[in-house]
Design a protein that fits this description.
The chain is of the alpha+beta class and 124 residues long. The protein has a single domain, classed as 2-Layer Sandwich (Beta Polymerase, domain 2), CATH 3.30.460. The chain contains 4 helices and 7 strands, in the order αββαβββααββ. A 7-stranded mixed beta sheet has the order 3-4-5-2-1-6-7. A hairpin with a 3-residue loop joins strand 4 and strand 5. The longest helix has 17 residues. The termini are far apart.
Length: 124
Amino acid sequence: MNEIESRQLAASVIDWGLSKKAEDVVLLDVRGLSDVTDYFVLMTGGSQIHVHAITDVILDGAAGTRNKPLHVEGRDLGRWVLIDFVDVVVHVMQEDARRFYALERLWGDATLTRFDPSGEEISE
């Protein structure tokens, strides 16, 4: 996947997540910082059911494209689901897990973009 395609996939993932009311949606651009992926998309669900709904809409949305996840982890528990599209890695987490693991701080050198509920970028 090239750089434009991975950014477009990240944007689609964000839209799909927001369609199920994902909260605190963040895009971390880790190009140049990680050899594993280009982008992390982080989003929060308010409960196990909410995390499942967000995960399902992302997987359903991707099923309609040529972007199939390489791996999905944590779906059964619904506390932290990781969806690995290789160049885009999605983390759908409950709030307590999101605070505890603090991926934004862990990847503090990454370019961080926040999104409001309508999908617009939030200036910081």
